[in-house]
Design brief:
alpha+beta; 15 helices; 13 strands; ten-stranded antiparallel beta sheet; 486 residues
Length: 486
């Protein structure tokens, strides 16, 4: 036992995690019922060390049940015993950011990886591939990193009383820092001021892209896109210009998976939408370039050296879109609830601010009960979840079930071997069979890319046909004219 505890301490020293060695050593020795003898430097693979310490902790009845979620929670607790306190991380980040913001973010990112808050090994299991769509390259990921809930975890949650559930109101609340229940004892967040309000920055445990991070509101309040949103996005860009930052839409169906806590997503990444071709450019407003992108989701790009004018113009476009109506195209802004909003993404490129405004509508009908501008039912076998910020910009996050299902699908196409999981795919697979276009597994993945491209097209409010293009052009021109009169 002592060998593995010492190996864990050695890892902490080697990765510069430990700030108080005596405290870390005493805490871990006591936890595993070891006498407070001398520490001996011991090097072992960290995965082996953690597996041993978690098994031992379970045998000592330090946690239960022995599920992935509980093991993650206890592993986070072990790291917390030797890593710096939240206040010290905040102080270090502030000190570094005062002189070199890149170093400050690198510090927090490396720490988050070293203490396994960012699940780098699980993330490496994800399957990545590309599809050359009519709109340019589309990136696709089959997400295998985030574990599904174990029935034992669900049963444990049912046993908890209301009093047991004190703490964070959701997984984005600042109170998750050093929270055991959400496996976040090793989470460290840092404060930011955006749009004259307090926010917090953290990295995502399951990176969907490079340096995937979350900027969360200090208070637990619902998502809301307005003029202040654009100011906050540009404040962050000014603070960290090498990152993009964006927000999910603030309405169900077209929004992200968490709508009850205002937050943004950021990272050091260039999404496919950045390279989208331009259908038409408008130069009607001085110092601002307005472009309608050739992209399946209807997107208006604003570019200027003047971020404050972009904030004003973006707020005007949002206001105009919220009341825009085109019944022939099924675009209706309000029934019993508002239906229209925007997914915004900001970046700084070539000394210019860029702001992409993706127009969204979440209305449903009998024909489209899941959403008119949502993945249509014939595509649900590949993707039925919300098309949030990440997917809308051209990076598909596909369900982990597809790894096995596509393996079975390939056997069906090549050897006629049917598997129960293929029932949802059977119409699609029979079409592929008739077309005789699948020679290799890679061909099947390309067909998945084609389906996801159709999913993005489903989510576009102005379709890229004659009527859609004309309507979008008219909307942009009318909005520009109204803005110039203000």
């Amino acid at each position: 036992m002592k060998t593995y505890v010492d190996a864990f301490l050695t890892y902490g020293i080697d990765h510069q995690i430990i700030t108080d060695f005596d405290r870390a050593k005493q805490s871990l020795y006591q936890l595993y019922h070891l006498p407070l003898g001398d520490y001996e430097k011991t090097t072992k693979p960290i995965d082996e060390v953690l597996a041993y310490l978690l098994d031992a902790a379970y045998q000592l009845k330090l946690f239960h049940p022995n599920t992935v979620l509980e093991r993650d929670a206890y592993e986070a607790y072990l790291f917390d015993l030797m890593m710096p306190e939240p206040s010290k991380v905040k102080q270090t980040f502030k000190r570094l950011s005062d002189t070199d913001k890149e170093k400050a973010f690198s510090y927090l990112y490396q720490l988050s990886k070293d203490v396994n808050y960012i699940k780098t090994k699980r993330i490496a299991q994800n399957i990545h591939f590309n599809y050359n769509s009519p709109y340019g390259n589309i990136e696709l990921t089959i997400n295998l990193s985030k574990p599904e809930k174990d029935p034992k975890d669900i049963a444990k949650a049912l046993e908890e009383t209301i009093d047991d559930k004190k703490g964070p109101k959701c997984v984005l609340c600042k109170e998750n820092e050093q929270n055991y229940q959400n496996a976040r004892m090793n989470l460290r967040i840092v404060p930011l001021e955006l749009a004259s309000r307090k926010w917090h920055f953290q990295y995502s445990p399951y990176l969907y892209f490079n340096e995937h991070s979350i900027i969360l509101s200090d208070t637990h309040k619902p998502m809301h896109i307005n003029k202040t949103t654009f100011k906050a996005l540009f404040d962050f860009i000014d603070f960290m210009p090498s990152y993009f930052v964006g927000s999910n839409a603030d309405l169900p169906i077209v929004g992200g998976s968490i709508l009850n806590h205002d937050h943004y997503q950021s990272g050091r990444y260039h999404f496919p939408i950045e390279h989208a071709k331009v259908i038409k450019t408008y130069h009607d407003i001085e110092r601002v370039t307005i472009s309608h992108l050739y992209w399946p989701l209807s997107t208006i790009r604003l570019a200027s050296n003047d971020r404050y004018q972009l904030e004003e113009l973006a707020a005007h476009i949002l206001s105009s879109w919220k009341t825009y109506e085109h019944k022939h195209l099924e675009i209706i802004p309000f029934t019993t609830k508002p239906h229209q909003t925007i997914t915004p993404i900001a970046r700084y490129k070539n000394n210019t601010y860029e702001l992409d405004l993706i127009l969204r509508n979440n209305r449903t009908t009998k024909a489209y009960p899941d959403g008119i501008f949502h993945p249509h039912q014939e595509h649900h076998h590949i993707k039925k979840e919300n098309i949030g910020l990440i997917e809308a910009t051209g990076l598909a996050i596909l369900p982990g079930r597809l790894k096995e299902e596509l393996a079975h699908a390939y056997l069906y196409l090549k050897e006629d071997k049917i598997h129960p999981s293929l029932q949802k795919h059977i119409l699609w697979l029979n079409q592929l069979k008739d077309q005789k276009i699948i020679s290799h597994k890679e061909d099947l993945y390309q067909e998945v890319g084609k389906i996801f491209t159709h999913v993005l097209e489903d989510a576009g409010v102005f379709k890229l046909d004659d009527s859609g293009l004309l309507a979008c052009d008219t909307f942009i021109q009318d909005t520009i004219k109204a803005y110039k009169k203000m």
